[in-house]
Amino acid sequence: MTVRILGAALVAAGLFVGLLAAVGAAAGWPGAVTLMAALVLWAGVAVLALLLLRLAPVVRLDDLGYRVRWVRGAGVREGRWKDVEDVVATTVQGARCVVLRHRDGRTTTVPVDLLSGPVESFVEDLRSHLNRGHGYRPLR
Fold first, then answer.
1. d(CA 88, CA 90)
2. End-to-end Cα distance, the chain
3. Domain range spanning residue 42?
4. DSSP helix/strand/coil, 50
5. What is the mean pLDDT of residues 12-32?
């Protein structure tokens, strides 16, 4: 996942570098100046893309529901806890995933290897949000 987004950012930066080189050639800049500016720009975009990926959450859970971002093929990207029937752990194309199954048959698939924290922590947080969303309270 990170590789796909980083790849897209680097392709965009590459296109911009090509544009910068064309402008530099038209303006009569020396080749070394154009090359150095292009490399610095390209590296800056790569670092910025990695930082943004680390800061932007893949899954956001709140009291009403959840939202999934940056995952192609996730299915339902956001939903309410009341609409989720159950949660199962599975493997999809070799990747460990958590699948939220909705009452209407739709699903949300979250590859857990994309998450920045421990998988067990995510599953426990997911379970507690789902239980609260359905009005369940822990036994004391």
1. 6
2. 41
3. 2-55
4. helix
5. 81
CA distance 40 to 48: 12
Rounded Cα distance, 28 and 15, in Å: 20
Q: How many Å is the Cα radius of gyration of the chain?
A: 21
81-120: pLDDT as tens digits: 999 999 999 998 888 999 999 999 999 999 988 787 788 8
Task: Name the region of 127 (left: φ>0; alpha: ψ -120 to 50; beta: rest).
Answer: alpha
Report the domain count for the chain.
2
Same domain, 66 and 116: yes
Dihedrals phi, psi of 89, to nearest 5 degrees: -100, 135
Could you tell me if 64 and 127 lie in one domain? yes
Residue 29 CB burial class (10 angstroms; 0-12, 13-18, ≥19): middle
Here the CATH number for the domain that contains residue 121 is: 2.30.29.30
CA distance 60 to 70: 12
Instruction: For residue 6, name the pLDDT band (cuts at 50, 70, 90).
Output: low
Tell me the one-letter amino acid at 31: G
For helices 31-55 and 2-27, give the axis angle rounded to 10 degrees.
160
